[in-house]
Every structure is written in C-alpha cells, then in structure tokens.
Amino acid sequence: MPLDILLSEHATEEQRSAILTPLLAHNLAKGGDDAHETFALLLRDPDSNEIIGGLYGKVSYRWLLIDLVSVPESMRGQGIGQRLMHMAEDIAQKKYCIGIWLETFSFQAPGFYQKLGYCEFGRLTDYPPGHTRMFYHKLLC
C-alpha cells in the first residue's frame, strides 16, 4: 500500500488526537490502565485571592510526575517550595506511588531538588542552548 507522509506545520488538536488515540490503545494493551489523576497545590494572594503560584502534579502508573512548581520570586527562601514538595510527597504516599519524578532546567532549581533527596537520572545538554534540562526522581520505598 503506498503511503503519503504530509507535513502539517501548524498541527491542530484534531491531528494530535488522531495520532494519540492509537498510541493510547497500544499503551493500555501493554501497560494496563493508566487511570491518572491530577492535583494542584495552590498559592493564593490573601488580599486578591489570585493564584500566584503552586505545584501541579499527575499520578500515573503509580508514579507522581511533578509537572510544575512555581513560587513568586519575592517569596523564595522562606520554605514555601519545600512545603509544597513535602505536601506532594504526602499525596504520593497516600496514593501508593513507587516514586516521584520531575524535570527542571539548570537555571531553575536543580540544587533545591537535590537537597530534598532527588537524584538525577538524565539530562539534555544545550536545551535551551547554553543550559541543561535535567530529570530527577525519588523513590518512596
């Protein structure tokens, strides 16, 4: 059967879904049900009630992915990030996770995660150019 491969320079969500659907079916057949759950720990400004930071995570295949961590610059160094991470670890424990993983950039917070017991398991150099993207994990056994 002849096959056409077409470039879509501005891929749509519909095109992404067409690629994702058979991939998810394959993953389900091989890896089992990925009944993932998401959660957020929100930092709110007490005056405006506006969300000003926090942590966003996803539990999948008994691993917690810490997808986003943001603490306003003016509030850093006060233990807020550490509190967020400990709260996320508590959630992971309650959901019987094997471990936690995350990614960060060399210009973000690798030392912060190392102090909390996370170990590097991979890196992409020059992503972005002149910097490194780093991957960390922590087992919860």
From TrEMBL:
InterPro entries in the record: Acyl_CoA_acyltransferase, GNAT_dom
CDD domains referenced in this protein's UniProt entry, alphabetically: NAT_SF
Highest taxon above the source species: Bacteria
Domain N-acetyltransferase: 1-141
UniProt-listed PROSITE patterns: GNAT
Identification of the protein by name: N-acetyltransferase
Classification via Pfam families: Acetyltransf_1 (PF00583)
Upper lineage: Bacteria, Pseudomonadati, Pseudomonadota, Gammaproteobacteria, Pseudomonadales
